[in-house]
Design a protein that fits this description.
It is a single chain. Strand 4, helix 3 and strand 5 form a beta-alpha-beta unit. The protein is globular, with a radius of gyration of 20 Å. The protein is α/β, with parallel strands linked by helices and 299 residues long. The longest helix is centred in the middle third of the chain and has 29 residues. Strands 3-2-1-4-5-6 form a 6-stranded parallel β-sheet, with helices on both faces. Helix 7 packs across helix 9 and helix 7 packs parallel to helix 12. Helix content is 51%, strand content 12%. The model has no long low-confidence stretch (mean pLDDT 96). It has 12 helices and 9 strands.
């Protein structure tokens, strides 16, 4: 793989993992984040500080992994936006979960500025991001795919090529997020139900993980509840945004999504209760609180 100069905008759990994977593949990697501690952490791992405007002249690839559409737009087109500073022919890989219409608009504007844009949402979690084993749901022009190839090879175990037009990748990610969010909310409900029946949660996880009722989200998140460990791998606060995107897309299509709406209400309740910065397994606490149940690790 040829060496590239790359940057990652947004160094949360996923962005930091992506940056580490790019470093492991031998690329020069700049990191930018409003949280200076996150930038320092990447620099300590061998990356470079990407907040200074002068660093972008040689950057071939920018991966955007920020929280929402407003942040994407600010990163790309704000006062110090990357679009105005990247060299012609550079590629922007948009990996934030956004609505398909927004992804298409970003592609039009970026390509109008002489750059490439790949609509490339990601799935897999922070650990797989750091291991270069993400699943990427990507759509964009053949030229955008070609320009993004070195980065994709470093960060992804699987790249799903979903077409030549931006927006399709984001639509597929919305399908994934619908299922993932509903599964996490269902996991929380199931664990609270198990507690209400006097079952020991460690045994519940073992039995259900080998039974028909399991899901990847159950197997991944339920142990956090068993351990009373809510350090955020993926936070509660992400889901009101992601499931909100699903609900908005569905509303425009005239499609009822009652399970999405129910899960969305559960995550909103968890965020309003003060659990927004905790691991998304903390949605279980809402069920437990309403049922006056005690979860592992609680006094």
């Amino acid at each position: 793989m040829s060496h590239r100069v790359m940057a990652v905008a947004g160094l949360g759990s996923m962005g930091h993992g992506i940056a580490l994977s790019l470093l492991s593949a031998g690329h020069t990697v700049y990191g930018a984040d409003v949280n200076r501690d996150r930038v320092s952490r990447l620099v300590a791992a061998g990356g470079r500080d990407g907040t200074a405007t002068v660093v972008s002249a040689d950057i071939d690839t920018l991966v955007v992994v920020v929280l929402n559409a407003a942040q994407v737009e600010a990163v790309l087109f704000g006062a110090q936006g990357w679009v105005s500073r990247l060299k012609p022919g550079a590629v922007i890989i948009g990996s934030t979960t956004v609505a398909p219409d927004f992804a298409r608009r970003m592609a039009d504007q970026v390509e109008g500025a002489g750059l490439h844009y790949l609509d490339a949402p990601i799935s897999g979690g922070a650990a797989r991001a750091a291991e270069g084993r993400l699943s990427v749901m990507a759509s964009g022009s053949p030229a955008a795919f070609a320009a993004a190839e070195p980065a994709l090879a470093a960060i992804a175990e699987t790249v799903h090529r979903l077409g030549d037009v931006a927006g399709t990748g984001s639509a597929m990610k919305a399908v994934n997020q619908l299922l993932a969010g509903v599964h996490i909310a269902a996991m929380g409900e199931a664990l609270a139900f198990a507690v209400s029946q006097g079952l020991e949660l460690g045994r519940v996880v073992k039995v259900i993980s080998g039974s028909a009722g399991t899901s990847w989200m159950f197997e991944n998140r339920a142990p956090h509840v068993v351990d009373g460990d809510y350090a955020p791998r993926s936070a509660v606060g992400i889901w009101p945004k992601d499931l909100g995107i699903v609900a908005e897309i569905a509303a425009r299509a005239g499609l009822p999504v009652p399970m999405t709406e129910t899960a969305l209400a559960r995550f909103r309740a968890a965020a309003e209760a003060g659990f927004g910065a905790e691991d998304d397994a903390a949605v279980t606490k809402i069920y437990a609180r309403e049922g006056r149940l005690k979860l592992p690790g609680e006094p």
